[in-house]
Structures are given as structure tokens and as C-alpha cells.
Amino acid sequence: MTDALAGSGLVVVDKPAGMTSHDVVARLRRIFGTRRVGHAGTLDPMATGVLVAGVERGTKFLAHLVATTKSYDATIRLGAATTTDDAEGEVVSSGDATSIRAEQVLAGMAELTGDIMQRPASVSAIKIGGRRAHELVRSGEDVEIPARPVTITRFDARAFRRDGPFLDVDVRVDCSSGTYIRSLARDLGDALGVGGHLTTLRRTSVGPFQLDDALTLDTLTTSPQLSLTLDQALTRSYPVLELTADEAAALAMGKWLEPRGLDGVHAAVAPDGKAIALVREKGTRLSTVFVARPSTL
């Protein structure tokens, strides 16, 4: 018997520089021959690395893909601030970073580690009054986005390089979802009094999905394939709750089960290894949050 969800799942793309996340989705739609493709966690055009996309029923799972942590490799250039806080913007101020020592940089990075308040870049995709901030900026409006709490669990320097009046710092960052790495570059440069911006950015992980899972668009064009089936995606993203065959059938029909003391969302898996649904306990019910395999399929 053919699995109705055989073509559903996630594609972890190693996004190339110069493409928007929407461009990647458009390519994937052509590659997989379906309009049902979406993505989670936008990457800027200059950025490369992990972009998680859903195909077919995998698109519905994206809304339940809670990537609490993300990791990046990046290069921060100290000695100039730009309009976009990255290399694509115009330089608005310069400062001689030749006298900046590594110890000063490390101290500044330490101040930006932990639970901090961060002001997102003005050219971000955050909506203000129903419009994207970057659209407002490009139409000539001044945009000031309020600072918001983020968590930086790692902000390490990997290498220092002098380039004329600039100091380039290769960094590795582990952070909460919603963190802007170019804002870290801006704030580090401001703290050191010389300005700073991002010159390279590569996302190395989104939650449980790593670069090891990622496929290039060239590879996918030649050999269309999922990185993870829907079953694999659910069980990697959430702790597993094993079901009996009767329980699996009930959840597939949207019914609820008796609670059993679970904390948080779990992937409910049938005896044959198929992921039936995401479930959560609420009150006296263990009910579905997302049904991956409804009985109608």
C-alpha cells in the first residue's frame, strides 16, 4: 500500500548567497513540482546556510516547528557602521580600529552574552503598522524598532584579522530565535566606539536541524529528495510518545486520549513507526495539536 505522505516532509537547504528565502521556495516548487512549499526562519540574501522548508503536508508542520535555538558563523568588521548593519548598506560612520585590542573585543562580546535587550536592525522583516520595517526604510521613513529580549548563549571569537583601519572578527553565535546577528555586530562596534557591521553570515543550525542535513539547490535540482520525511521531522523535533494501534487510530480521527502526565508537546507514534500527530495534555485530555496522518488520508 502506497504511503499517502511519501512526498511530505522537510527539505533542509544550504541556501546560497544572493538569494532571498522566497527565491529558494520558488526553486523548490519547480524542483518538486508542487505549489505546496513553504519555509521557516527567513535568511537575508547575503546569508548562507540552513533554511528549513516544508513540502506538501510538511508545510503545515512548519507552524509547529519551534526552533528555540539557532547557531551562526559570522564575520564582524569593526571600524565602520552601515545603514543596514551589514555589508550591503552604505557606510554612515567610520572609526579607526587599529588600536582596538582583542581583549577589548572579548570584553565587549561578554557584555552582549546572556539575556539581553536587543534592538533589531531597521531593515528587518518585522512589521510596523502592517508594513515590513525594511519597506518603510526603503521608502525614506525613519524607523526605530523597540528593543526586545533575546538570549545569547554563546558569542565566541574564533579569529582576528587586521585589514587597514579595520579589525575583522570571526565569531560563532548560539542564540534564541528572534536574535539579529547584525545587531550584535552594530552593538559591539558601538560599544567599542568605532562602529561595526556584518560582512559574512552562515547559519549552521535551526533547532535540531544542522548543516549535515542540508542539501544544495544544485543537488536537489539533479536529485529531488526530502531531507527528512514527516515522520522523521516530528520525532526529531519532539519527544516521542509510543501509541497502541487503537490509540493511533483514535488520534488520526482527531479524538482525544486519557492524560498520562506528559509535559509539553510530544510526537505520538504508532506501533509501525508512523508519526500520527503532535499531542499535548490540557486538563483531563491528551489532545492533538497537529495531525500529521489524519484518517482521511
How would you characterize the overall build of this protein?
This protein is of the alpha+beta class. 22% of the residues lie in helices and 37% in strands. It has helices at 21-32, 58-61, 102-111, 133-138, 181-192, 217-222, 230-237, 245-252, and strands at residues 9-15, 37-40, 48-55, 69-78, 80-82, 91-94, 114-118, 127-128, 131-132, 148-163, 166-176, 196-206, 209-210, 228-229, 240-242, 266-269, 275-282, 285-291. Strands 1, 2, 3, 4, 7, 10, 11, 12, 13 and 14 form a 10-stranded mixed beta sheet that branches. The chain has a 4-stranded mixed beta sheet with strand order 15-16-17-18. The mean pLDDT is 91. Residues 238-293 form the tRNA pseudouridine synthase II TruB subfamily 2 C-terminal domain. This is tRNA pseudouridine synthase B. Residues 182-222 form the tRNA pseudouridylate synthase B C-terminal domain.
Which structural class matches the secondary elements? Answer: alpha+beta
Question: How many beta strands in the DSSP annotation?
Answer: 18
Report the uncertain regions.
Answer: none
End-to-end Cα distance: 12 Å
Chain-averaged pLDDT: 91
